[in-house]
Design brief:
The strands form two sheets. A four-stranded mixed beta sheet has the order 5-2-1-8. Strands 4-3-6-7 form a four-stranded antiparallel beta sheet, with no helix packed on it. 28% of the residues lie in helices and 27% in strands. The chain is of the alpha+beta class.
């Protein structure tokens, strides 16, 4: 009798452990697939509700926004991106929009496993061709920002985004005003690294317009 109970208990323990192993494997597989298909810190147009600050303790940040800049193409582009960009520019149906954020480590420590993601104003969503309002470092990127020195530029990095708006000179005046208003609104920037994180509101972006300012 006791021998039978002992066997049953062992069977129960075996099945419990088996189920636990299967669950761990399933969760691990799901987590792996999730991260493989979500290359940024956050895959959402809506920035997380965090306590954003206008001052950084660890970084100096420069933000440039270029509206309507014309890009030079060689004429024999091989990548799909370059071909599509060339066709879009030559079609005269679109206005280019380029974001560049340069991030410099001003602390006295090396910033390891650096990640950053920027969110532009949600008012741009109806106008940006892709509808995507975020950009930044990819999860698989390995970035360390060294302390500042005079020999290398490895204490700074940049994140950027190139996209298209409808041709500014061909859309309704109210839409042009909404676009410019959204472009000039603060950008939310989330920075994470091995030993910390910062949530920043970038308010002083330099905006360069390469379109007719009388119409924009």
């Amino acid at each position: 009798m006791d021998g039978g109970n002992s066997i049953n208990i062992k069977r129960i323990i075996f099945y419990v452990l088996l189920i636990a192993v299967i669950l761990v494997a399933f969760v691990g597989y799901d987590y792996y697939n999730y991260n493989r298909s979500h290359p940024f810190l956050y895959n959402t147009n809506k920035a997380p509700n965090l306590n954003y600050s206008t001052q950084s303790k660890n970084f100096k940040i420069y933000t440039l926004i270029e509206v309507g800049k014309k890009y030079q193409f060689s004429g024999n582009e091989t990548s799909e991106w370059a071909k599509n960009a060339k066709e879009a520019q030559e079609s005269n149906k679109y206005t280019s929009l380029q974001y560049t954020i340069i991030i410099e480590n001003i602390s006295d420590k090396v910033i390891r496993d650096f990640k950053a993601q920027a969110f532009v104003d949600e008012g741009l969503q109806p106008y940006i061709m892709s509808g995507i309002l975020y950009f930044g470092t990819l999860n698989q990127q390995k970035i360390d920002l060294n302390v500042k020195n005079n020999e290398k530029m490895d204490y700074m990095t940049e994140i950027s985004r190139f996209t298209w708006l409808p041709n500014i000179n061909q859309i309704d005046v109210k839409d042009r005003e909404k676009i410019l208003e959204a472009i000039k609104k603060p950008i939310k920037l989330i920075i994470k690294w091995r030993d910390g994180e910062e949530y920043l509101l970038l308010e002083n972006a330099e905006v360069k317009q390469f379109v007719d300012k009388a119409k924009f």
